[in-house]
Amino acid sequence: MKVLNYDFKHLRGDVCGGLTAGIVALPLALAFGVASGAGAAAGLYGAIALGLFAAVFGGTQTQISGPTGPMTIVAASAVAAFPGHPQYIIAVFLIAGLGQIVLGSARLGTFVRFIPYPVVSGFMNGIGVIIILLQLEPLLGLPSVSSPMAALLGLGSALGSIQMQSLMLGVLTIAIVFLVPARITRVVPSPLIALLVGTAIAWEGHFDVAMIGAIPSALPHPTMPGFEASQVGRIVGLGLALAVLGTIDSLLTSVVADSLTRKKHDSNRELIGQGIGNMISAILGGLPGAGATMRTVVNIKAGGTTRVSGVIHAALLLAILLGLGPLASHIPMAVLAGILVKVGVDIIDYRLLSLVKRAPRTDLLVMVVVFGVTVFIDLIVAVGVGVTLAAAMVAVRTARQCSVSVSEVEDRPLDDLAEDAIQRETDYRIQVVTIRGPFFFGTTANMQDKFSSMLGTQVLVVNCLDVPFMDISAVFALGETIEKLQAARITVLLAVTAEQRESLQKLGMGKLLAPDAYYGSHEAVLAAARKLLAQRHQRESMVPRISGAAS
Protein backbone atom coordinates (compact mmCIF):
# COMPACT_ATOMS: atom_id res chain seq x y z
CA MET A 1 0.00 0.00 0.00
CA LYS A 2 1.32 3.45 -0.93
CA VAL A 3 0.21 6.91 0.16
CA LEU A 4 2.02 9.93 -1.29
CA ASN A 5 4.58 7.52 -2.77
CA TYR A 6 5.27 6.00 0.67
CA ASP A 7 5.24 2.23 0.80
CA PHE A 8 3.79 1.18 4.15
CA LYS A 9 5.79 -2.03 4.10
CA HIS A 10 8.67 0.14 5.39
CA LEU A 11 6.63 1.59 8.26
CA ARG A 12 7.61 -0.90 10.94
CA GLY A 13 11.32 -0.51 10.20
CA ASP A 14 11.04 3.27 10.00
CA VAL A 15 9.24 3.44 13.35
CA CYS A 16 11.86 1.24 15.03
CA GLY A 17 14.73 3.14 13.44
CA GLY A 18 13.28 6.57 14.22
CA LEU A 19 12.44 5.77 17.85
CA THR A 20 15.87 4.21 18.46
CA ALA A 21 17.66 7.14 16.86
CA GLY A 22 15.55 9.56 18.92
CA ILE A 23 16.47 7.81 22.16
CA VAL A 24 20.15 7.97 21.22
CA ALA A 25 19.80 11.62 20.18
CA LEU A 26 18.23 12.84 23.44
CA PRO A 27 21.26 12.75 25.76
CA LEU A 28 23.55 13.90 22.94
CA ALA A 29 21.35 16.87 22.06
CA LEU A 30 21.27 17.97 25.69
CA ALA A 31 25.01 17.46 26.06
CA PHE A 32 25.88 19.35 22.90
CA GLY A 33 23.59 22.20 23.94
CA VAL A 34 25.36 22.55 27.25
CA ALA A 35 28.80 22.20 25.65
CA SER A 36 28.03 25.00 23.18
CA GLY A 37 27.22 27.47 25.93
CA ALA A 38 23.77 28.09 24.45
CA GLY A 39 22.04 25.77 26.91
CA ALA A 40 20.56 22.28 26.84
CA ALA A 41 17.29 23.57 25.34
CA ALA A 42 19.16 24.91 22.31
CA GLY A 43 20.56 21.44 21.65
CA LEU A 44 17.09 19.92 21.87
CA TYR A 45 15.52 22.59 19.63
CA GLY A 46 18.26 22.04 17.07
CA ALA A 47 17.80 18.28 17.08
CA ILE A 48 14.05 18.65 16.53
CA ALA A 49 14.09 21.36 13.85
CA LEU A 50 17.09 20.12 11.88
CA GLY A 51 16.11 16.49 12.34
CA LEU A 52 12.66 17.15 10.88
CA PHE A 53 13.41 19.47 7.97
CA ALA A 54 16.64 17.78 6.85
CA ALA A 55 14.76 14.47 6.79
CA VAL A 56 11.95 15.94 4.68
CA PHE A 57 14.03 18.03 2.26
CA GLY A 58 17.41 16.27 2.33
CA GLY A 59 18.93 13.92 -0.20
CA THR A 60 19.85 10.96 2.03
CA GLN A 61 16.85 8.77 2.81
CA THR A 62 18.10 7.32 6.10
CA GLN A 63 20.15 10.21 7.47
CA ILE A 64 19.46 11.43 11.01
CA SER A 65 20.50 15.03 11.54
CA GLY A 66 21.07 17.12 14.63
CA PRO A 67 23.81 18.81 16.66
CA THR A 68 27.17 17.07 16.21
CA GLY A 69 30.55 17.34 17.89
CA PRO A 70 32.31 19.34 15.15
CA MET A 71 29.39 21.73 14.66
CA THR A 72 29.05 22.22 18.42
CA ILE A 73 32.68 23.27 18.74
CA VAL A 74 32.32 26.02 16.11
CA ALA A 75 28.90 27.01 17.48
CA ALA A 76 30.53 27.39 20.88
CA SER A 77 33.03 29.79 19.29
CA ALA A 78 30.12 31.89 18.02
CA VAL A 79 28.44 31.88 21.43
CA ALA A 80 31.71 32.91 23.09
CA ALA A 81 32.33 35.61 20.46
CA PHE A 82 29.07 37.46 21.16
CA PRO A 83 28.28 37.20 24.89
CA GLY A 84 25.03 38.91 25.74
CA HIS A 85 24.01 39.25 22.07
CA PRO A 86 21.81 36.29 21.20
CA GLN A 87 20.58 38.06 18.05
CA TYR A 88 24.15 38.00 16.69
CA ILE A 89 24.41 34.28 17.39
CA ILE A 90 21.11 33.65 15.60
CA ALA A 91 22.48 35.59 12.62
CA VAL A 92 25.60 33.37 12.54
CA PHE A 93 23.51 30.20 12.57
CA LEU A 94 21.12 31.61 9.96
CA ILE A 95 24.00 32.44 7.59
CA ALA A 96 25.32 28.91 8.09
CA GLY A 97 22.07 27.45 6.81
CA LEU A 98 21.84 29.95 3.97
CA GLY A 99 25.42 29.12 2.96
CA GLN A 100 24.55 25.42 2.72
CA ILE A 101 21.53 26.18 0.54
CA VAL A 102 23.75 28.26 -1.77
CA LEU A 103 26.33 25.46 -1.97
CA GLY A 104 23.66 22.91 -2.78
CA SER A 105 21.94 25.14 -5.33
CA ALA A 106 25.30 25.75 -7.02
CA ARG A 107 25.76 21.96 -7.17
CA LEU A 108 29.00 22.06 -5.23
CA GLY A 109 28.14 19.16 -2.96
CA THR A 110 30.04 16.62 -5.04
CA PHE A 111 33.33 18.46 -4.52
CA VAL A 112 33.51 17.36 -0.88
CA ARG A 113 34.52 13.89 -2.03
CA PHE A 114 37.81 15.37 -3.26
CA ILE A 115 38.97 16.26 0.26
CA PRO A 116 41.88 13.87 0.95
CA TYR A 117 41.38 11.24 3.63
CA PRO A 118 44.38 12.37 5.77
CA VAL A 119 42.75 15.83 6.01
CA VAL A 120 39.46 14.32 7.18
CA SER A 121 41.31 12.02 9.58
CA GLY A 122 43.37 14.80 11.14
CA PHE A 123 40.28 16.98 11.42
CA MET A 124 38.17 14.30 13.11
CA ASN A 125 41.01 13.36 15.47
CA GLY A 126 41.34 17.02 16.43
CA ILE A 127 37.60 17.36 17.03
CA GLY A 128 37.61 14.25 19.20
CA VAL A 129 40.49 15.55 21.32
CA ILE A 130 38.88 18.99 21.65
CA ILE A 131 35.63 17.46 22.91
CA ILE A 132 37.50 15.34 25.47
CA LEU A 133 39.63 18.26 26.70
CA LEU A 134 36.61 20.53 27.09
CA GLN A 135 34.92 17.97 29.36
CA LEU A 136 37.77 17.74 31.86
CA GLU A 137 36.61 20.64 34.04
CA PRO A 138 32.91 19.61 34.11
CA LEU A 139 33.96 16.08 35.05
CA LEU A 140 35.79 17.52 38.03
CA GLY A 141 32.78 19.63 39.05
CA LEU A 142 34.16 22.94 37.76
CA PRO A 143 32.74 25.41 35.21
CA SER A 144 33.52 24.53 31.61
CA VAL A 145 36.16 26.44 29.66
CA SER A 146 35.97 27.78 26.12
CA SER A 147 39.10 26.36 24.48
CA PRO A 148 41.29 23.24 24.65
CA MET A 149 44.34 25.34 25.51
CA ALA A 150 42.49 26.85 28.47
CA ALA A 151 41.51 23.34 29.56
CA LEU A 152 45.12 22.14 29.43
CA LEU A 153 46.57 25.23 31.11
CA GLY A 154 43.95 25.16 33.86
CA LEU A 155 44.16 21.44 34.52
CA GLY A 156 46.70 21.83 37.35
CA SER A 157 44.56 24.17 39.39
CA ALA A 158 41.45 22.14 38.51
CA LEU A 159 42.97 19.01 40.04
CA GLY A 160 43.34 20.91 43.30
CA SER A 161 39.64 21.85 43.34
CA ILE A 162 37.98 18.53 42.56
CA GLN A 163 34.31 18.16 43.48
CA MET A 164 34.23 14.49 44.41
CA GLN A 165 30.52 13.90 43.83
CA SER A 166 30.79 15.25 40.27
CA LEU A 167 33.90 13.17 39.63
CA MET A 168 32.12 10.06 40.87
CA LEU A 169 29.15 10.66 38.57
CA GLY A 170 31.44 11.38 35.65
CA VAL A 171 33.51 8.23 36.17
CA LEU A 172 30.35 6.15 36.57
CA THR A 173 28.94 7.58 33.34
CA ILE A 174 32.14 6.84 31.44
CA ALA A 175 32.17 3.30 32.80
CA ILE A 176 28.58 2.73 31.67
CA VAL A 177 28.96 4.11 28.13
CA PHE A 178 32.16 2.13 27.56
CA LEU A 179 31.40 -1.13 29.38
CA VAL A 180 27.72 -1.91 28.85
CA PRO A 181 27.61 -5.04 26.62
CA ALA A 182 26.62 -4.61 22.99
CA ARG A 183 23.62 -6.93 23.37
CA ILE A 184 22.13 -4.45 25.86
CA THR A 185 22.98 -1.30 23.92
CA ARG A 186 21.18 -2.72 20.92
CA VAL A 187 18.00 -2.53 23.01
CA VAL A 188 18.72 0.54 25.15
CA PRO A 189 21.58 2.85 24.07
CA SER A 190 24.34 3.15 26.65
CA PRO A 191 24.22 7.00 26.73
CA LEU A 192 20.56 6.82 27.77
CA ILE A 193 21.36 4.23 30.45
CA ALA A 194 24.13 6.48 31.79
CA LEU A 195 21.82 9.51 31.72
CA LEU A 196 19.07 7.75 33.69
CA VAL A 197 21.40 6.05 36.19
CA GLY A 198 23.53 9.13 36.87
CA THR A 199 20.52 11.41 37.26
CA ALA A 200 18.77 8.95 39.57
CA ILE A 201 21.84 8.60 41.83
CA ALA A 202 22.29 12.38 42.03
CA TRP A 203 18.57 12.84 42.76
CA GLU A 204 18.28 10.11 45.39
CA GLY A 205 21.59 10.99 47.03
CA HIS A 206 20.84 14.72 47.10
CA PHE A 207 24.18 15.40 45.45
CA ASP A 208 25.36 18.99 45.50
CA VAL A 209 26.48 19.09 41.88
CA ALA A 210 25.90 21.39 38.90
CA MET A 211 22.73 20.58 36.97
CA ILE A 212 21.55 21.45 33.46
CA GLY A 213 18.96 23.87 34.80
CA ALA A 214 15.49 24.75 33.63
CA ILE A 215 14.41 23.53 30.21
CA PRO A 216 11.25 25.01 28.66
CA SER A 217 8.46 22.51 28.18
CA ALA A 218 6.88 24.43 25.30
CA LEU A 219 7.70 25.25 21.72
CA PRO A 220 10.13 28.16 21.33
CA HIS A 221 9.03 31.47 19.82
CA PRO A 222 10.63 32.37 16.48
CA THR A 223 13.24 35.11 16.78
CA MET A 224 14.70 37.03 13.88
CA PRO A 225 18.36 38.05 13.91
CA GLY A 226 19.75 41.53 14.23
CA PHE A 227 23.26 42.93 14.25
CA GLU A 228 25.30 46.08 13.85
CA ALA A 229 27.19 46.80 10.65
CA SER A 230 30.51 46.68 12.53
CA GLN A 231 29.91 42.99 13.33
CA VAL A 232 29.09 41.83 9.80
CA GLY A 233 32.58 40.49 9.10
CA ARG A 234 32.74 38.33 12.23
CA ILE A 235 29.18 37.10 11.83
CA VAL A 236 29.58 36.16 8.17
CA GLY A 237 32.97 34.55 8.82
CA LEU A 238 31.64 32.30 11.59
CA GLY A 239 28.49 31.54 9.57
CA LEU A 240 30.45 30.44 6.52
CA ALA A 241 32.76 28.36 8.71
CA LEU A 242 29.72 26.53 10.06
CA ALA A 243 28.33 26.13 6.53
CA VAL A 244 31.53 24.53 5.24
CA LEU A 245 31.92 22.33 8.30
CA GLY A 246 28.27 21.25 8.19
CA THR A 247 28.67 20.42 4.51
CA ILE A 248 31.68 18.21 5.15
CA ASP A 249 30.14 16.61 8.24
CA SER A 250 26.80 15.85 6.55
CA LEU A 251 28.12 14.51 3.27
CA LEU A 252 30.64 12.25 4.97
CA THR A 253 27.75 10.78 6.94
CA SER A 254 25.80 10.41 3.70
CA VAL A 255 28.67 8.36 2.29
CA VAL A 256 28.53 6.11 5.37
CA ALA A 257 24.77 5.70 4.88
CA ASP A 258 25.32 4.77 1.23
CA SER A 259 27.80 2.09 2.20
CA LEU A 260 25.27 0.52 4.59
CA THR A 261 22.16 0.76 2.42
CA ARG A 262 23.84 0.29 -0.98
CA LYS A 263 21.97 3.34 -2.25
CA LYS A 264 23.25 6.64 -3.63
CA HIS A 265 22.46 9.95 -1.96
CA ASP A 266 21.89 13.30 -3.68
CA SER A 267 24.67 15.52 -2.32
CA ASN A 268 23.23 18.81 -3.51
CA ARG A 269 19.71 18.09 -2.29
CA GLU A 270 21.18 17.01 1.03
CA LEU A 271 22.90 20.37 1.42
CA ILE A 272 19.70 22.24 0.62
CA GLY A 273 17.82 20.15 3.21
CA GLN A 274 20.52 20.72 5.82
CA GLY A 275 20.47 24.45 5.06
CA ILE A 276 16.70 24.70 5.44
CA GLY A 277 16.87 22.79 8.72
CA ASN A 278 19.68 24.92 10.11
CA MET A 279 17.92 28.17 9.17
CA ILE A 280 14.69 27.11 10.90
CA SER A 281 16.67 25.84 13.88
CA ALA A 282 18.39 29.23 14.14
CA ILE A 283 15.09 31.12 14.10
CA LEU A 284 13.77 28.84 16.86
CA GLY A 285 16.88 29.34 19.00
CA GLY A 286 18.39 25.93 18.29
CA LEU A 287 21.95 24.82 17.61
CA PRO A 288 23.12 24.23 14.04
CA GLY A 289 23.98 20.68 13.19
CA ALA A 290 24.65 18.17 10.44
CA GLY A 291 24.13 14.58 9.50
CA ALA A 292 25.05 12.56 12.58
CA THR A 293 26.99 9.41 11.78
CA MET A 294 26.25 7.41 14.92
CA ARG A 295 22.53 8.22 14.93
CA THR A 296 22.28 7.48 11.19
CA VAL A 297 23.94 4.09 11.64
CA VAL A 298 21.65 3.31 14.58
CA ASN A 299 18.63 4.20 12.47
CA ILE A 300 19.70 1.95 9.61
CA LYS A 301 20.62 -0.96 11.87
CA ALA A 302 17.24 -0.69 13.63
CA GLY A 303 15.39 -0.95 10.32
CA GLY A 304 15.00 2.63 9.07
CA THR A 305 14.89 2.75 5.28
CA THR A 306 13.14 6.02 4.33
CA ARG A 307 13.03 9.66 5.39
CA VAL A 308 9.98 8.85 7.56
CA SER A 309 12.39 7.44 10.14
CA GLY A 310 14.02 10.87 10.46
CA VAL A 311 10.61 12.49 10.93
CA ILE A 312 9.72 9.98 13.67
CA HIS A 313 13.06 10.68 15.39
CA ALA A 314 12.23 14.41 15.49
CA ALA A 315 8.65 13.75 16.63
CA LEU A 316 9.89 11.68 19.58
CA LEU A 317 12.24 14.45 20.69
CA LEU A 318 9.38 16.96 20.40
CA ALA A 319 7.17 14.76 22.57
CA ILE A 320 9.95 14.50 25.16
CA LEU A 321 10.39 18.29 25.11
CA LEU A 322 6.68 18.90 25.68
CA GLY A 323 6.26 16.21 28.33
CA LEU A 324 9.54 15.73 30.17
CA GLY A 325 11.25 19.12 29.92
CA PRO A 326 11.06 19.89 33.67
CA LEU A 327 12.54 16.49 34.61
CA ALA A 328 15.51 17.01 32.27
CA SER A 329 16.56 20.06 34.28
CA HIS A 330 17.86 17.72 37.03
CA ILE A 331 20.45 16.01 34.82
CA PRO A 332 23.96 16.55 36.30
CA MET A 333 26.51 18.32 34.14
CA ALA A 334 29.12 15.68 35.03
CA VAL A 335 26.90 13.00 33.49
CA LEU A 336 26.66 14.92 30.23
CA ALA A 337 30.44 15.44 30.32
CA GLY A 338 30.96 11.70 30.65
CA ILE A 339 28.67 11.05 27.67
CA LEU A 340 30.61 13.59 25.61
CA VAL A 341 33.91 11.94 26.48
CA LYS A 342 32.56 8.80 24.78
CA VAL A 343 31.51 10.91 21.79
CA GLY A 344 35.03 12.36 21.56
CA VAL A 345 36.64 8.94 21.75
CA ASP A 346 34.31 7.59 19.05
CA ILE A 347 35.11 10.48 16.69
CA ILE A 348 38.84 9.72 16.71
CA ASP A 349 39.94 7.93 13.53
CA TYR A 350 41.55 4.70 14.68
CA ARG A 351 41.65 3.37 11.12
CA LEU A 352 44.56 5.59 10.08
CA LEU A 353 46.16 5.62 13.53
CA SER A 354 46.44 1.84 13.37
CA LEU A 355 48.49 2.21 10.17
CA VAL A 356 51.00 4.75 11.50
CA LYS A 357 53.96 2.45 10.89
CA ARG A 358 52.88 1.52 7.36
CA ALA A 359 51.14 4.61 5.98
CA PRO A 360 53.08 6.96 3.66
CA ARG A 361 55.03 9.60 5.57
CA THR A 362 53.49 12.40 3.54
CA ASP A 363 49.94 11.35 4.42
CA LEU A 364 50.85 11.12 8.09
CA LEU A 365 52.41 14.58 7.92
CA VAL A 366 49.17 16.02 6.51
CA MET A 367 47.15 14.28 9.22
CA VAL A 368 49.40 15.53 12.04
CA VAL A 369 49.44 19.11 10.74
CA VAL A 370 45.65 19.19 10.38
CA PHE A 371 45.28 17.68 13.85
CA GLY A 372 47.54 20.29 15.41
CA VAL A 373 45.89 23.24 13.65
CA THR A 374 42.44 21.90 14.56
CA VAL A 375 43.20 21.59 18.26
CA PHE A 376 45.35 24.66 18.83
CA ILE A 377 44.36 27.20 16.15
CA ASP A 378 41.07 26.89 14.23
CA LEU A 379 38.92 24.18 12.68
CA ILE A 380 38.26 25.79 9.32
CA VAL A 381 41.86 26.97 9.00
CA ALA A 382 42.83 23.35 9.61
CA VAL A 383 40.77 22.13 6.66
CA GLY A 384 42.23 24.84 4.40
CA VAL A 385 45.79 24.11 5.51
CA GLY A 386 45.25 20.39 5.13
CA VAL A 387 43.79 20.58 1.63
CA THR A 388 46.56 22.94 0.52
CA LEU A 389 49.29 20.75 2.01
CA ALA A 390 47.77 17.60 0.53
CA ALA A 391 47.51 19.26 -2.88
CA ALA A 392 51.17 20.29 -2.66
CA MET A 393 52.13 16.70 -1.82
CA VAL A 394 50.14 15.40 -4.79
CA ALA A 395 51.79 17.98 -7.06
CA VAL A 396 55.24 16.83 -5.94
CA ARG A 397 54.36 13.17 -6.48
CA THR A 398 52.85 13.89 -9.88
CA ALA A 399 55.85 15.98 -10.92
CA ARG A 400 58.12 13.04 -10.16
CA GLN A 401 56.12 10.97 -12.66
CA CYS A 402 57.04 13.36 -15.46
CA SER A 403 60.30 12.86 -17.34
CA VAL A 404 61.92 15.24 -19.79
CA SER A 405 64.62 13.76 -22.01
CA VAL A 406 66.75 15.26 -24.79
CA SER A 407 68.06 13.28 -27.76
CA GLU A 408 69.89 14.13 -30.98
CA VAL A 409 68.59 12.88 -34.32
CA GLU A 410 70.87 11.55 -37.03
CA ASP A 411 70.48 13.70 -40.15
CA ARG A 412 69.74 11.16 -42.86
CA PRO A 413 69.93 12.52 -46.45
CA LEU A 414 66.81 13.21 -48.49
CA ASP A 415 66.67 12.11 -52.11
CA ASP A 416 65.76 15.49 -53.52
CA LEU A 417 68.45 17.45 -51.65
CA ALA A 418 72.22 17.39 -51.80
CA GLU A 419 73.64 14.88 -49.36
CA ASP A 420 76.59 17.05 -48.40
CA ALA A 421 74.24 19.81 -47.33
CA ILE A 422 72.79 17.81 -44.49
CA GLN A 423 75.69 15.87 -43.06
CA ARG A 424 77.43 18.62 -41.11
CA GLU A 425 76.08 17.63 -37.74
CA THR A 426 78.61 19.79 -35.90
CA ASP A 427 76.94 22.96 -37.18
CA TYR A 428 73.42 21.82 -38.00
CA ARG A 429 71.56 19.56 -35.63
CA ILE A 430 68.09 18.34 -34.84
CA GLN A 431 67.28 17.68 -31.20
CA VAL A 432 64.15 16.19 -29.68
CA VAL A 433 62.78 17.05 -26.25
CA THR A 434 60.43 14.26 -25.20
CA ILE A 435 58.02 14.93 -22.34
CA ARG A 436 56.41 11.90 -20.73
CA GLY A 437 53.80 12.14 -17.98
CA PRO A 438 51.69 15.00 -16.63
CA PHE A 439 52.86 18.37 -17.94
CA PHE A 440 51.76 20.99 -15.42
CA PHE A 441 53.07 23.78 -13.20
CA GLY A 442 55.07 21.31 -11.13
CA THR A 443 57.09 20.06 -14.12
CA THR A 444 57.72 23.22 -16.12
CA ALA A 445 60.98 24.02 -14.35
CA ASN A 446 62.45 20.67 -15.42
CA MET A 447 61.44 21.36 -19.03
CA GLN A 448 62.90 24.86 -19.03
CA ASP A 449 66.18 23.55 -17.62
CA LYS A 450 66.44 21.14 -20.55
CA PHE A 451 65.72 23.87 -23.09
CA SER A 452 68.43 26.11 -21.68
CA SER A 453 71.07 23.85 -23.28
CA MET A 454 69.71 24.10 -26.82
CA LEU A 455 72.05 26.74 -28.22
CA GLY A 456 73.54 25.53 -31.50
CA THR A 457 70.48 23.49 -32.35
CA GLN A 458 68.85 24.38 -35.67
CA VAL A 459 65.55 22.52 -35.40
CA LEU A 460 64.02 21.53 -32.09
CA VAL A 461 61.21 19.01 -31.84
CA VAL A 462 59.03 19.02 -28.71
CA ASN A 463 57.32 15.63 -28.42
CA CYS A 464 54.16 15.82 -26.24
CA LEU A 465 52.48 12.66 -27.52
CA ASP A 466 53.02 10.88 -24.18
CA VAL A 467 51.56 13.75 -22.10
CA PRO A 468 48.16 12.75 -20.63
CA PHE A 469 47.29 16.34 -19.71
CA MET A 470 48.81 19.79 -19.58
CA ASP A 471 47.60 22.79 -17.60
CA ILE A 472 47.72 26.46 -18.52
CA SER A 473 50.94 27.00 -16.53
CA ALA A 474 52.69 24.44 -18.74
CA VAL A 475 51.27 26.00 -21.92
CA PHE A 476 52.47 29.47 -20.92
CA ALA A 477 55.90 28.13 -19.92
CA LEU A 478 56.16 26.31 -23.26
CA GLY A 479 55.18 29.50 -25.10
CA GLU A 480 57.81 31.58 -23.28
CA THR A 481 60.45 28.97 -24.08
CA ILE A 482 59.49 28.89 -27.76
CA GLU A 483 59.81 32.69 -27.92
CA LYS A 484 63.36 32.49 -26.53
CA LEU A 485 64.30 29.71 -28.94
CA GLN A 486 62.91 31.59 -31.91
CA ALA A 487 64.89 34.66 -30.85
CA ALA A 488 67.98 32.44 -31.06
CA ARG A 489 66.96 31.42 -34.64
CA ILE A 490 65.95 27.91 -33.59
CA THR A 491 62.96 26.46 -35.44
CA VAL A 492 60.47 24.69 -33.16
CA LEU A 493 58.14 21.89 -34.22
CA LEU A 494 55.57 20.15 -32.03
CA ALA A 495 54.45 16.54 -31.98
CA VAL A 496 50.99 16.69 -30.37
CA THR A 497 47.62 15.01 -30.47
CA ALA A 498 44.69 16.70 -32.19
CA GLU A 499 43.18 17.56 -28.82
CA GLN A 500 46.45 19.05 -27.59
CA ARG A 501 46.82 21.10 -30.77
CA GLU A 502 43.34 22.56 -30.39
CA SER A 503 43.97 23.42 -26.74
CA LEU A 504 47.36 25.02 -27.48
CA GLN A 505 45.97 27.17 -30.27
CA LYS A 506 43.06 28.32 -28.11
CA LEU A 507 45.53 29.40 -25.43
CA GLY A 508 47.57 31.58 -27.80
CA MET A 509 50.17 29.22 -29.22
CA GLY A 510 48.87 29.97 -32.73
CA LYS A 511 50.53 33.38 -32.53
CA LEU A 512 53.94 31.75 -32.06
CA LEU A 513 53.78 28.75 -34.38
CA ALA A 514 52.42 28.46 -37.89
CA PRO A 515 49.81 25.76 -38.61
CA ASP A 516 52.47 23.60 -40.32
CA ALA A 517 54.50 23.43 -37.09
CA TYR A 518 52.17 20.81 -35.57
CA TYR A 519 52.43 17.10 -36.35
CA GLY A 520 50.46 14.13 -35.14
CA SER A 521 53.20 11.50 -35.00
CA HIS A 522 56.85 11.19 -34.08
CA GLU A 523 57.81 10.00 -37.56
CA ALA A 524 56.03 12.88 -39.31
CA VAL A 525 57.61 15.56 -37.16
CA LEU A 526 61.11 14.10 -37.63
CA ALA A 527 60.63 13.97 -41.40
CA ALA A 528 59.54 17.62 -41.34
CA ALA A 529 62.51 18.54 -39.16
CA ARG A 530 64.97 16.89 -41.58
CA LYS A 531 63.35 18.61 -44.52
CA LEU A 532 63.57 22.03 -42.85
CA LEU A 533 67.18 21.41 -41.92
CA ALA A 534 68.05 20.35 -45.46
CA GLN A 535 66.30 23.38 -46.94
CA ARG A 536 68.21 25.67 -44.63
CA HIS A 537 71.50 24.02 -45.61
CA GLN A 538 70.62 24.36 -49.27
CA ARG A 539 69.90 28.07 -48.92
CA GLU A 540 73.10 28.68 -47.00
CA SER A 541 75.18 26.64 -49.44
CA MET A 542 73.93 28.83 -52.28
CA VAL A 543 75.21 32.03 -50.67
CA PRO A 544 78.96 31.40 -51.47
CA ARG A 545 78.12 30.48 -55.10
CA ILE A 546 76.17 33.70 -55.63
CA SER A 547 78.93 35.74 -54.02
CA GLY A 548 81.58 34.04 -56.19
CA ALA A 549 79.58 34.65 -59.37
CA ALA A 550 79.20 38.32 -58.49
CA SER A 551 82.95 38.73 -58.00
From TrEMBL:
Q: How does it sit in the membrane?
A: Multi-pass membrane protein
Can you give the residue ranges of the STAS domain?
A: 432-529
Keyword GTP-binding in record: no
One Pfam match: STAS
Q: Is Membrane tagged as a keyword?
A: yes
Q: Which residues cross the membrane?
A: 12-32, 38-57, 88-108, 115-136, 156-180, 192-215, 235-257, 310-328, 334-352, 364-396
Taxonomy, superkingdom: Bacteria
Q: InterPro entries annotated for this entry?
A: SLC26A/SulP_dom (IPR011547), SLC26A/SulP_fam (IPR001902), STAS_dom (IPR002645), STAS_dom_sf (IPR036513)
Q: What range does the record give for the signal peptide? A: none
Keyword terms: Membrane, Transmembrane, Transmembrane helix
Kindly list the places in or outside the cell where this protein is found, as annotated in its UniProt entry.
Membrane
Could you tell me what this protein is called? SulP family inorganic anion transporter
Q: Which source organism?
A: Pseudodesulfovibrio methanolicus
Species lineage, top-down? Bacteria, Pseudomonadati, Thermodesulfobacteriota, Desulfovibrionia, Desulfovibrionales
